[in-house]
Design a protein that fits this description.
The protein is α/β, with parallel strands linked by helices. The protein is about 35% helix and about 20% strand. The protein is built from ten helices and 16 strands. The protein is globular and about 60 Å long. Strand 2 and strand 3 form a beta hairpin. Helix 3 crosses helix 8. It has two domains: about 160 residues, Periplasmic binding protein-like II (D-Maltodextrin-Binding Protein, domain 2); about 100 residues, Periplasmic binding protein-like II (D-Maltodextrin-Binding Protein, domain 2, 3-Layer(aba) Sandwich). About 40% of the residues are buried. The longest helix has 17 residues.
């Protein structure tokens, strides 16, 4: 039997430990997916146009398109072309617990990447930047957040809008009564039915709800902003292999310019099922995120 000198054996062991990424032992999400043969995407049902249901109750949207690119990358990385993809609806309140307990493997919607949330989960590159503000009825006489003093406002449970609104209340001496919807559609309905004077949420989500309202001309978005926030897909924390694949996939779409076609499809053209056009051009903040892919939270 051939014997190796100690230094030669050490070199062999070192080479094994520094093998290419594709040859490394799988960990985290990729290991789970390889073992089960399934990948579960968490999606929203009314986060227009990021992740919502079409007329056949199928999840579609800007975030869903990007997430399905990641699913394709997982199939290629694991050599599983027939990988089973499950679609699991989630809400603002349960999305993090369902990700942490393994029910879903990635959440695709309108989720803000915050420093606070980064204590529990991780995020891919920022794919949208929003302003938190309010939608009101045009005949309400409300033109700024200060005008909400003494009014009832709606917002969606589990979103970052609630703490932002409370901070604004304290700073501006504005006192409001809050009522909560389980999702954005329900929160907007509270405004539409005059159970609330305003719906506090991200500007693009407000625009989506207004565009799909029975009478869009009845509503407006006020110019005030509580804070800018970045959106991204959410993944499990401390999962470097999967995060590297997500960052490479989404970053590549941004660097190649493919992101512009996907963006135009959902924000500058008629979208299903009603053929409504959001007419929401790329803002300077969004363009910067595309040019410099990052996962910085607020």
């Amino acid at each position: 039997m051939k014997r190796y000198a100690p230094i030669t054996l050490a070199l062999l062991l070192s080479a094994a430990l520094t093998a290419p990424a594709g040859a490394q032992e799988l960990t985290g999400t990729l290991k789970k997916v390889k073992e089960t043969g399934t990948f579960t995407v968490g999606h929203r049902e009314s986060s227009i146009p990021f992740s919502y249901l079409d007329d056949k109750q199928r999840p579609i949207g800007y975030a869903m398109d990007l997430c399905m690119k990641i699913v394709d990358a997982v199939k290629a990385e694991l050599k599983l072309p027939s990988l089973k993809v499950n679609l699991q609806p989630v809400t603002s309140s349960n999305r993090i617990p369902l990700l942490q307990n393994g029910t879903i493997d990635m959440e695709c919607g309108s989720t803000t990447n915050s420093v606070k949330r980064q204590e529990q989960v991780s995020f891919g590159p920022t794919y949208f930047v929003i302003n938190i503000t309010a939608a009101v009825k045009k005949n309400s006489g409300i033109n700024s957040l200060v005008d909400l003093n003494g009014k009832t406002v709606s917002t969606t449970s589990g979103t970052t809008s609630v703490p932002m609104l409370k901070a604004y209340e304290k700073t501006k001496n504005v006192s409001v009564k809050e009522i909560f919807g389980k999702d954005h559609a329900e929160s907007f309905l509270l405004l539409a039915d005059d159970r609330a004077s305003a719906f506090i949420m991200d500007d693009i989500l407000l625009a989506g709800q207004i565009a799909n309202a029975k009478n869009p001309a009845d509503f407006k978005i006020i110019p005030d902003s509580l804070r800018k926030e970045p959106y991204s897909m959410m993944i499990r924390k401390d999962d470097p292999q999967f995060k590297a694949l997500v960052d490479k996939t989404v970053g590549g779409i941004m660097k190649s310019g493919e992101i512009d076609k996907i963006y135009d499809k959902w924000f500058m053209k008629p979208m299903p099922p009603k053929g409504i056009n959001m007419n929401f051009p790329v803002t300077p903040d969004i363009r910067d995120a595309f040019k410099n892919p990052n996962d910085k939270g607020v």
